[in-house]
Amino acid sequence: MLILFFLALLLLILIKFNELIITLVLNDLALPSVSALRQLHWLPINRRINFKIAVLTYWALQSGTPSYLSSLINLNTTSRALRSSSLSLLHVTFTTSAIGCKAFRFAAPTIWNSIPLRIRSLPSLNSFKRSLKTHPFSLNSL
């Protein structure tokens, strides 16, 4: 429980630090943080964490390295031929605890399955990262 408290505190500190950097870079105190993030093309902290997890997942699926991460993610396989079998979805393990939801074994498949197929199936890491980062901006969902 104490670990969750410190992680939440660290996240709040990172958010405040991010807002401070935005005001220093833009030199505008009156600009709201959401529009400043959009103007700088920066992702909010929680989206940045999800971005990093998605990039690690892509890397583990494409190259199989690092082995300690690629062993934690499995493609969703079924015994029958379904329409969803061609979507390259990952198997999401069941968890009921709050800490379990933050584990890579649960977070990576959940985040990966939420990415559109056109982004997940890109051939190179650079094109994947570029498309993944611009995806929230194209949806105006920051």
Sheet with the most strands, sense and barrel status: none
Query: How would you classify the quaternary structure?
Result: single chain
Whole-number mean pLDDT: 78
The percentage of residues in β strands lies in under 5%
Helicity, as a percent range: 55-70%
Q: Count the E strands.
A: 0
Helix-strand pattern, N to C?
A: HHHHHHHH
Q: Number of domains in the coordinates?
A: 2
Gross geometry: globular
Report, as a whole number of angstroms, the end-to-end distance. 30 Å
Low-confidence stretches: none
Structural class of the secondary elements? Answer: mainly alpha
* Radius of gyration computed on alpha carbons: 18 Å
Q: How many helices does DSSP assign?
A: 8
Output the keywords:
142 residues; mainly alpha; 2 domains; 0% strand; globular
Lay out the secondary structure.
Blueprint: H1 2-26, H2 33-40, H3 45-63, H4 67-70, H5 98-102, H6 104-114, H7 117-120, H8 125-139
Helix pairs in contact: 1-2, 3-6, 3-8
Task: Write a structural description.
By secondary structure, this protein is mainly α. The protein has two domains: 1-42; 44-142, no CATH class. Helix content is 64%, strand content 0%. The chain contains eight helices and no strands. The protein has helices spanning 2-26, 33-40, 45-63, 67-70, 98-102, 104-114, 117-120, 125-139. Helix 3 (45-63) crosses helix 6 (104-114). The two termini are 30 Å apart. The mean pLDDT is 78.
